[in-house]
Amino acid sequence: MSSSSADHHPIVSVILSVRNGEPYLKQAVDSILAQSFEDFELIIVDNHSTDDSPHIVESYDDERIVLTRPEDPLHLAQALNYAASMARGEFVARMDADDVSHPSRFEKQVAYLQEHPEVGILGAQICPIDEDGAPITRGQYDKPESHADIACSLFFGCALWHPTVMLRKSVIDELGYYSSPVIAGREEYSTEDYDLWCRAIGHTQIHNLSEKLLDYRIHAENHSLASSRRKEHSRNLVLILTQYIKKSLGMD
Q: How far apart are CA 232 and CA 188, in angstroms?
């Protein structure tokens, strides 16, 4: 990164963690670099990949890309905290290494957040795709749009598509990013996004746009939790939901 770009604080910091994401990583990065809104930095955490992922990132000649590698392998929540701690933007956008952001995603999300200062977390709808990028037409994938509907939906599960989310950095700074005593020591079983939304709902407005702004890839890797890990994943969900119910009832 040049000294001039280092002195400039971008509007958006994109955080992306990858571990052995070679099959889809280039398409994901390309979709970020093709955004109509160009004032961003893309912070990519190479989480100790053993495939060609870091070389794919290094092949780009774009000063907006920041490639970093933690000293030790991290769970996703830790990797996202690591990336977010480096973010310099007013807004922090999530992205996964196997998804595809639509070209107008950042433009529409930044405009909405600038027009609605009460909203601290903003998601969007998705277009589900399979391993080959073909549309998946079965199933219901829409998420609720209003803050009230999201608050109710959280009693039944995650109410936002994590890779679509753009957050105000001031909000996640206050909330402590993806760190939470509820799932402390259990981050490897994921659910870090559900935990953050449940903690955030009482601090800031959360909305979802009605537009589909990301192709969300559904494939074997993101559906293949071993039975023991699935059980622990479910336990995390119960821990988070229990805390959310207690807060909602004023019992925390």
A: 9
